[in-house]
Amino acid sequence: MGAVTTHNAIHLPIFWHKEWNNFYQICLSLQYGGAVSIFIPGHNLSHHKYPQQARDVMRTTKVRYNWNLLNGLLFFWHVVLSGNKDDKLYFKAQARLNRPIAKQRRMEEVAVWSATVVLVLLDWRRWIWFALLPQFYAKYCILSLNFLQHDGCDMSSKYNFARNFTGRTLNYFCFNNGFHTVHHLHPGLHWSTLPQKHQELIAPHIAPSLEISDMLLYIWRCFIYPGHRLDYKGHRLLISKEENEMPDEPWFYNGSETYSDTQEYLAYSI
Question: Which InterPro entries match (predicted)?
């Protein structure tokens, strides 16, 4: 839940005043175990703007193992190891331009490292069990979820480019993060409006196979039995060597965009 809260706050600020949002991001960084401003280049500016393209550092074509379970398990590492370079370039450019996000990231990192040192000195064993491992699990899950949501979808389609998990239990605990298509099309919407907007804007147009009520059953079928990597039409998904080895293409690092459009939330909330 903490990782999803971080994701939501980076898209749509919680408070009207910037200072309160900056403080809230520091608090989120402490529970997340890392500077949450790092979400902005890799997620907001890369994945959301260029899904499954060369500028998307989280594209699922980065993995092409014959055993689909390995694709799911190792997707996280492929993305993290290749995306760090772009994150560094983005924040280096922001620091050079003296943008506020560079200072915000530094404050988040100071808070995280200070808290980590204190916790390790107090009891390093409890730090591992109650901080390090849960924080890693949160990072691993929210990034790996991208594989479930986009692999095998049609990126040329306005609606069939993402898979939606519509089960009530999942969305109750994950703040409606399962409604992924409407989130991509309208990232400035508040999470509480996503089920309604999915029914209004997405459900009448999307392929039925991209609305899945039971995510655990989908994971079983996708990775365990029969465990085939399929597209949303049920055909075998083959990732070419060229797609797999396509290098990340840097985007324009001088851009000042950070959050999604707050005005969009206001427009849909009236």
Answer: FA_desaturase_dom
Is 259:44 a contact under the CB 8 Å cutoff? yes
Which residues does 56 contact at the CB level (< 8 Å), separation at least 6? 46, 47, 50
DSSP-assigned letters across all residues of 104-151? HHHHHHHHHHHHHHHHHHHHHHHHIIIIIHHHHHHHHHHHHHHHHHHT
* 8-state DSSP, 189: S
Cα gap 53→172, rounded to integer Å: 31
> Which among 264, 98, 246, 113 has a CA at the least distance from the CA of 186?
264
d(CA 34, CA 19): 19
Query: Contact at 8 Å (CB) between 53 and 45?
Result: no
Provide the β-strand partners of residue 164: 211
Collapsed DSSP state (helix, strand, coil) of residue 158: coil
Instruction: Spell out the alpha helix ranges (H) of 14-131.
Output: 18-32, 39, 68-96, 100-127
- 63 SS3 class: coil
What gap in Å lies between CA 263 and CA 149, rounded to an integer? 26
Domain spans of the chain, in order of start: 1-151, 158-235
